[in-house]
Design a protein that fits this description.
Blueprint lengths: L18 H14 L3 E2 L3 E5 L3 E7 L8 E6 L2 E8 L18 E8 L10 E5 L2 E7 L20 H4 L2
């Protein structure tokens, strides 16, 4: 369980905070205000396909782009800040907003023409079918004595 106190931020309590506390808070605010994030994913290697699931809550399928380029799967999008509250009113925000991009290098046996994606309940599920293994083909070795020699073929 995560606990946080419901109290005004230090910005409103200038008398009780020292200058080093302000600088320390500024340092860590940089990490919290990033406009880029990477959604969590899970990758499975199944018998006939690979599957990738990405957690992208709060997005619609129209907010997500999915493309294969240079044997890489690129998933990108943006979770926009809705602006329902002003920053001074927010007591705590752990939601991530901004652009995201995840790039997955594809194995050689992925059939890129058959990739499918499904979006449901904030999870993007991508199915990457494996190409069927090519059948082994037996090659018959012929006897050169029954045919023309290689030297006579070039003439």
């Amino acid at each position: 369980m995560y606990h946080f106190e419901l109290k005004p931020s230090r910005k409103n309590n200038v008398l009780n905070s020292t200058s080093w506390e302000k600088e320390f808070d500024k340092l860590f605010d940089v990490f919290n205000k990033s406009d880029y994030y990477a959604p969590a994913c899970e990758i499975l290697d199944e018998e006939k396909s690979y599957s990738i699931s990405l957690d992208v809550p709060g997005l619609k399928k129209e907010d997500i782009d999915l493309e294969v380029k240079d044997n890489r799967l690129v998933v990108s999008g943006e979770r926009k800040f809705e602006g329902k509250t002003e920053k001074d009113n927010v007591l705590r925000s752990e939601r991530r907003y901004g652009k995201f991009s995840r790039v997955f290098s594809l194995p050689q046996n992925v059939n890129t023409d058959a990739i499918e994606a499904r979006f449901e309940n904030g999870v993007l599920a991508i199915n990457l079918p494996k190409e069927e293994k090519s059948q082994a083909k037996k090659i018959t070795i012929s006897d050169w004595s029954n045919k023309e020699s290689p030297a006579s073929l070039s003439n």
